[in-house]
Amino acid sequence: MPELLLDGRALKVAEGTSVAAALALGSDGCTRTSVSGQRRAPLCGMGICQECRVTIDGRRRLACQTLCRDGMQVETHP
């Protein structure tokens, strides 16, 4: 079972879990705040909408297209 850090909090997830699914399990699911101040969350689940953008190990990634791995550090931008 991979354990990742989600905004500084440890979270264990099942093997094969996407970062977007981990966000839904370990937080309110929001990934960022829009320029108008609205909280955003994954929408399409296939990388088209870009609503699931997070920082993973220092690089901007799509949470719905990234599988969790042990030691991964995920930062949302609410």
UniProtKB/TrEMBL annotation:
<dbReference type="InterPro" id="IPR036010">
    <property type="entry name" value="2Fe-2S_ferredoxin-like_sf"/>
</dbReference>
<dbReference type="InterPro" id="IPR001041">
    <property type="entry name" value="2Fe-2S_ferredoxin-type"/>
</dbReference>
<dbReference type="Pfam" id="PF13510">
    <property type="entry name" value="Fer2_4"/>
</dbReference>
<protein>
    <submittedName>
        <fullName>(2Fe-2S)-binding protein</fullName>
    </submittedName>
</protein>
<dbReference type="InterPro" id="IPR042204">
    <property type="entry name" value="2Fe-2S-bd_N"/>
</dbReference>
<dbReference type="GO" id="GO:0016491">
    <property type="term" value="F:oxidoreductase activity"/>
</dbReference>
<feature type="domain" description="2Fe-2S ferredoxin-type">
    <location>
        <begin position="1"/>
        <end position="78"/>
    </location>
</feature>
<keyword id="KW-0560">Oxidoreductase</keyword>
<dbReference type="GO" id="GO:0051536">
    <property type="term" value="F:iron-sulfur cluster binding"/>
</dbReference>
